[in-house]
Design goal:
By secondary structure, this protein is α+β, with helices and mostly antiparallel strands. Helix content is 42%, strand content 19%.
Length: 179
């Protein structure tokens, strides 16, 4: 039987320890999407793609669609069971995010699929931050500390928490670009 994308269940902002099974889930979701959209590539990004990096516990993926295939990418994700954002401040439909959940090894894994043109500059930024985290345990420790400090400061809304950690990410990307 094939993978079934289930309903996304929102919860309060959190910082969970890294689950190495996240990589298996990311590969399974990529294998579900890529054959159905020729030329598309799915990559695992975010904290769950970095061994040892604690985070929100949501598997972030980017779906890189070929030129002219945005509508096809959105339609495919919708047909597979992914859902549009219903929270405040959703991504626009010309740069959508789809959410879902997948049962794997007795655990429900939450999924975010960022749908981006393969030519988008955002792709390079996401990859650069992920790759720097993978290469720099000190940056991972600082990032996790920043996330935990945001929660300790009382952040419970996931969107607020994301906005607040964004300052850390922007600063890290600045340092990465300076070399």
């Amino acid at each position: 039987m094939g993978l079934v994308i289930g309903p996304y269940r929102s919860g309060p902002a959190a910082c969970h320890e890294h689950d190495p099974r996240s990589a298996e889930v990311a590969r399974a979701v990529a294998a579900l999407i890529e054959p159905r959209l020729p030329g598309a590539v799915v990559e695992h990004i975010g904290s769950t793609s970095v061994p040892g990096c604690a985070g929100k516990g949501i598997i972030d993926l980017i779906l890189l669609y070929p030129p002219g295939q945005l509508a096809a990418a959105r339609d495919l994700l919708d047909a597979l069971g992914f859902q549009k954002q219903t929270s405040r401040d959703p991504f626009p439909e010309d740069r959508p995010l789809r959410k879902g959940a997948l049962e794997h090894a007795g655990t429900t894994f939450l999924l975010h699929v960022h749908v981006l043109s393969a030519a988008s500059p955002e792709v390079g930024q996401m990859r650069a931050f992920r790759d720097r985290l993978r290469a720099d345990p000190g940056l991972v420790a600082a990032y996790v500390a920043a996330k935990r400090a945001i929660l300790a400061d009382g952040a419970t809304d996931p969107i607020d928490s994301c906005y607040r950690k964004g300052a850390f990410v922007v600063d890290a990307l600045r340092r990465i670009s300076r070399g």
